[in-house]
Specification:
With 115 residues, this protein is of the alpha+beta class. The chain has one domain: Arc Repressor Mutant, subunit A. Helix content is 59%, strand content 12%. The protein contains 6 helices and 3 strands. The chain has a 3-stranded antiparallel beta sheet. Strand 2 and strand 3 form a beta hairpin. It is globular and about 45 Å long.
């Protein structure tokens, strides 16, 4: 029960929900999220740590950069929650705007910026 409570607590902050929507695009680094959300690195990193500790986000290091992606669900409850978020978040105006900003940024991004 504690694990489920921690997993659900991860979505008690709107910024973390916005991040989950953006990670639907695929693997992203903090710099990508900073551009899309217009938030400082420290705030994004804090939210990523929370999401990772709750089991929603996976990470991998490539040189000095850490890339984040949605973690594979651990069990049917987590899979169900993620399915609902995947269905509903794209309908939220703020999430739509964030996603569009991310797409615009990635189209013009210097390929070496986050590699």
């Amino acid at each position: 029960m504690e694990t489920l409570a921690e997993q659900l607590k991860a979505f008690s902050d709107p910024t973390r929900l916005r991040i989950v929507r953006l990670l639907e695009h695929g693997e992203l680094c903090v710099c990508d999220l900073m551009e899309a959300l217009d938030l400082p690195q420290s705030k994004i990193s804090r939210h990523m740590s929370f999401l990772k500790n709750a089991g929603w986000v996976a990470s991998r290091r490539n040189g000095k950069w850490i890339y984040y992606s949605l973690a594979a669900p651990e069990g049917h409850i987590q899979a169900s929650i993620l399915a609902v978020l995947r269905q509903e978040l794209p309908q939220v105006l703020q999430a739509q705007e964030d996603y569009q900003r991310l797409c615009n940024y990635l189209e013009t991004k210097n390929p070496e910026k986050c590699d």
